[in-house]
Amino acid sequence: MVAAWLWLLCFLVPQALPRAQPAELYVEVPENYGGNFPLYLTKLLLPREETEGQIVVSGDAGVAGEGLFAVDPESGFLLVTRALDREEQAEYQLQVTLETENRRVLWGPQPVRVRVKDENDQASGHQATATIDVSIVENTWVPLDPVHLAENLQVPYPHHIAQVHWNGGDVHYHLESQPQGPFDVDTEGKLYVTQELDREAQAEYLLQVWAQNTHSEDYAAPLELQVVVTDENDNAPICPPRGPSVSIPELSPPGTKVAKISAEDADAPSSPNSHVVYQLLSPEPEEPAELRAFELDSTSGSVTLGAAQLQAGQNILLQVLAMDLGGTDGGLSSTCEIPVTITDINDHAPEFTTSQIEPVSLPEDAEPGTLVTTLTATDADLEPAFRLMDFAIEAGDEEGTFSLDWEPDSAHVQLRLLKNLSYEAAPSHKLVVVVRNVEELVGPGPGPGATATVTVLVERVVPPPQLDRESYEASVPISTPAGSLLLTVQPSDPLSSPLRFSLVNDSEGWLCIKEISGEVHTARPLQGAQPGDMYTVLIEAQDADEPTLSTSATLVIHFLKALPAPTPTLAPVPSRHLCTPRQDHGVVVSGPREDPDRAGGHGPFSFALGPNPTVQRDWRLRALNGSHAYLTLGLHWVEPREHVVPIAVSHNDQIWQIQVRVIVCRCNVEGQCMRKVGRMKGMPTKLSAVGILVGTLIAIGIFLILIFTHLTLARKKDLDQPVDSVPLKVAV
C-alpha cells in the first residue's frame, strides 16, 4: 500500500509543478516580399521523438483563422503563407503548441514575435517637379567575341582576357560563370582568369556580366562571353587496365587474333595530341618475319600471331608502346602490357617408353592375377585431361588369357594373368599392347611407339610326387624282431610315376625301407629303446623319371613295452586271393592255436589292423567270433600284387602280431584270378634271340670274307707266272 502511494505521488508532483517556458523567438519579414511562398521563417525546437498530436499556432486575433502562419510538421519550420504589409500590421505575437485531440499540451507554448520590415512603398503625399536633361551617347554595352585560352597557360595570374563598359556612372559589375570557373571582374569591367585552365576538366565556359546600380538592380540584360580552352598535349595515352591472361591454343595459324590495344588519350579528339600509334616492345620483333611470334598493327593496335611457332605452357608478357602525336618526336607515351598464355592441345599421342619387352617366363601353374609385367607410357601434352590414356591388348590374346589393369590418371599399366596357362596348349604368347588417348587426338595419328610387344614364355611344371599321407606313425613293441614290417609308404596316385624311397636321419639304424615298394621294416633289434619313447625319421621319395622332383614325410615310431610272452604258433592262413575291383568276398583270419601249457593261449581274441595308415585305408577287418575275423578290401580299387597285411591279435594284456599275405588280382567274370604268365623255361628271351641273330650274321660275314680273299690271292698268283710255263690246251 505504501508503495502504491509513493508511485502516485511521484506521478502527480511533476504534473502539478509549473513547466519552464521556452525563450521568445524573434523573426523579421520584409513587407511585400516578392519571392516564392510559403516563406520559411525559423526552425522550432519540436520534440525529436515521435509524438502523436497536432501543432497549433495561435496569437493575435485573426491569425489562426486566416492561416497566415503555419508550421511544417516534417521540418519544424515556422512559415508565412503570403506577403505581409507593415502598414496593415507591423508586428505579430504568436504562440506555438503541440496538443492532443483533447487539447492537452504536450509541448510549448513557444512564443514567437514576427516583425514586418518596412520598405519604401508609399508616397509622401506631396508633389515635386524635376527637370531631366537627356543626352544620346554611343552604347558601349555590346556583345563580346569568344575568347580562346590555352590550357596550362604559363602567365602571371590574374590574367586579363576581356573588357566590358557601361555608359553611365554609378555602376558596378557582377560576373557569373557557367559552369563555375576561375574568372573575375573588377570595378572597371575588366575580366580576368585567375588560374590555369584544364581543357580535360572543362573545355568551355559561358560568362555573364551584369551592370548594376548601388541597389544591385540591373541596368540592362547581361553580356555573355564564351571562353574556349584550347588543347595542349599534356596527357599521355592511358593503357587499358591489365586484364586476365589471353589464352591462345598452340599450333594456332599465323594471323590468329591475340588482342587489341586501345589506349585512351584525354587530349582533344581528332587532334594530333590524341592521335595514338603503337609499337611492339617485347618480345622484340625479329627479322626476318618468319622468326616473329607476334605481329602488331601500329594504327589499330591489333596483335596477331606471327609465323614462329609457340610451345604450350609458355607465359608471355606483351609490352606495347602507345605514343601520341602519331609517334613523332615530342609526343607522350605509355607502355601497355598484355599477358598471353599458350594453352595445350591434344597434339601428342602417348608412347611406351619401351616398345620391346624382354621375354617374361611364367610357370604354367601360375595363379590368375599374377603380375606379368608393368608397362609405362608417356604423353608430351601438358593438360592433365590430354594425358589420360586407354590401354588394350591388340593382338596375341585371342583366348583372353591376359588382362590389363591401370588407374585412370596413371601412365603405368599392369599386364596380369587372367586364366590358367597350359604349356601343351601354348608354350609362348606374343602380346601386342596398344595405348591411345582418351580425348580425341589433334594432328597426326599415333606413331610406332604407341604399341609394345610382350613375349610370355610358359614354363612346363612337373608336380612333385605326393605321398598318401603327410606324416606316418607306427606303434612298435620294443621286443619287435629285426625284419618286421611296420608300414608301407605309397604315392597318393597309384598311376603316377614310380618313386624311389629312402630314409634320412635314421641315427640308430633301427629301420630300413625298400626302395621300390616303400615297405618300412625293422633293420635290427630295438636295443636301447624304452617304452613311451618316440623315434622320428624322415622318409624321402624321389620321382624315378625326374630325380630333381622329390617330397618327404615324417615317420614317428612310438615304442611300446615288450610282450610278456613269446608269440604263440599262429594258425596257417590259407593262401587266398581277392579281386580288384572289389567283390563280395574276403579272407578269414584265425587267432592263435590253443596251448594248454601257456596261460592265455585260447580266446576270446580281439583283432585290429596294424597302425600303418595305408593299411587302415586299403583294408577292413571285422570280427566273426571270439577266434576268427574277416579281412576285406577297404577301397574299390587296390593295386594288383601280393600284399602283407599286419594284424594285431590281443587277449587280456597279451598282443601278438600276425602277417596275413593276400594276393590282390584282376578277376574274370567268374571270379577267377587272372595272373600274368611268366617266361617258360627253355624259351629264349628277346635279348638272347637278338644276340643269336646278330652272331649268326657276323659268322656268315666272316665266312664270305675268307672266300673272297682266297679267290683274290689265287687270281693274283696266276697273273705272276711266265707265258711259257702255261701248258697248251690240246684241241680235239
* Gross CATH architecture of the largest domain: Sandwich
Number of domains: 6
| First-to-last CA distance | 206 Å
- Major sheet details: 5 strands, mixed
CATH H-level superfamily title of the largest domain:
Cadherins
- The helical percent reads under 10%
Q: Which CATH class of the largest domain is shown?
A: Mainly Beta
Radius of gyration, in angstroms, nearest whole number:
69 Å
Q: Care to describe what's here?
A:
This protein has 4 helices and 44 strands. The protein has 6 domains: 25-117, Immunoglobulin-like, CATH 2.60.40.60; 147-230, Sandwich (Immunoglobulin-like), CATH 2.60.40; 246-343, Immunoglobulin-like; 351-459, Sandwich (Immunoglobulin-like), CATH 2.60.40.60; 471-560, Cadherins (Immunoglobulin-like, Sandwich), CATH 2.60.40; 576-590 and 604-666, Immunoglobulin-like (Sandwich), CATH 2.60.40.60. With 732 residues, the protein is mainly beta. It is 8% helix and 38% strand. Strands 37, 39, 42, 43 and 44 form a 5-stranded mixed beta sheet that branches. A hairpin with a 5-residue loop joins strand 6 (91-99) and strand 7 (105-117). The longest helix has 35 residues, at 686-720. It is found in: Membrane. One of its GO terms (molecular function) is cadherin binding. The chain crosses the membrane at residues 687-708. This is Cadherin 16. Keywords: Calcium, Membrane, Repeat, Signal, Transmembrane, Transmembrane helix.
